[in-house]
Predict the 3D structure of the following.
Amino acid sequence: MTAIFPVILCGGAGTRLWPASRPDRPKQFLKLLGAHSSFQETLLRVRDLAQDRDVIVVTGAGMVEMVRDQAREIGAAITVLVEPQARNSAPAVAAAAVLVERLDPSGVMLMLAADHHVGEPEAFREAARVAAAAAGQGLIVTFGVRPTGPATGFGYIRPGEPADQGVFRVAAFVEKPDLETARRYVAEGYLWNSGNFAFQAATLLGELRRFEPTVAEGARAAFADAVVEPGLVRLDATGFARAASISIDYAVMERTDKAAVVPAAFDWSDLGAWDAIWGASPQDGAGNAAQGDVTLVDTTGVLARSTGPFVGAIGVSDLMIVAEPDAVLVCRRDDAQAVKALVDGLKAKGRDLAERHSTVSGGGVERRSVTYTDQAGVELWRFEAGAAATLPAASVQVLSGEVTLDGRAATAGDRLELVSPTAAAAGPASVLLVTIWR
């Protein structure tokens, strides 16, 4: 029986799901549809397929703590492969392939995104077993989801001749279409391209050597000089930087003659924007989906979600209302894709709201936004005893406790001007007021 090694790619920021998803806490770690995040749901979905093998999770250094915490929460055994820098999906997949090849040269990688929703886990596992069997014959198999309608937000696959039991050759990959073209694709039996794959590690690395040799070479170099700890592999930055920054689609899938597709009937979404969250959420008889402290009166087709203030909506239709403690988004449901433009505008103005939540905790340090003006942002930093962090260039007042800033001790009442990012370490528990001038 073919050994399956699930590999989960866990990166990205999910800009179109702002204000809930931001780089400091991306969408794959948010519990948007129930008790588990999409990352946790992915781990649970592949547990039986992995049997007693660790699930391999590829992520960046800034997400390692979130990955481990969420895996621990559901009792999932994982090995974390840490990218030293983001270089698109092909180098990440190649590094995972090097690891799987070392573990089992004939093993099949099941490469999945961490931020997708699958409504029928058992149907997914059945499709995965079919894909793995074909991958064991040297094919690179993608999951093609049968469309539920003419969606314009997905790429499509045109299936070709049968290649194996339940698997077809890929006749063509096509980009996201306009609505009229999408209708034609659905009528002609095209499938949505889910961006999830199954292949033998050796097959994938062989195709990379063919088409993008720097990616294969960089992955092997990064792994050869990696720092290996129990459950954690930190890839070497110098070796990894040798790999071209390119997606697995452009590097391999659109160029290989080994591409195949398994048609799958499970309910699937890439959860790319708030309209997708609405579509995947339980709805009442009026098409409303509510989560958190929300009351809807005489409304239809509304998504209302709050992790902060109470949200009440009366007499409205087809809206997205998303409330976080520090930001509220309201838009028409058919404008959900435009959220990225709003976030880009915040970034252009230097607003921290675009990048992080008002309260960020980690490593014994809590960072909370107090107020914002065009001239300055004011934050409260709380350090547990012995905790350390890097403060930005800012005016700093120690409100309580004692901290060491680049070797200088500062106690309650002290004020300091930091002209550049500065390492801070607390002795006892400490609180700092940090003013970041713009």
Summary: The chain has a mean pLDDT of 92.
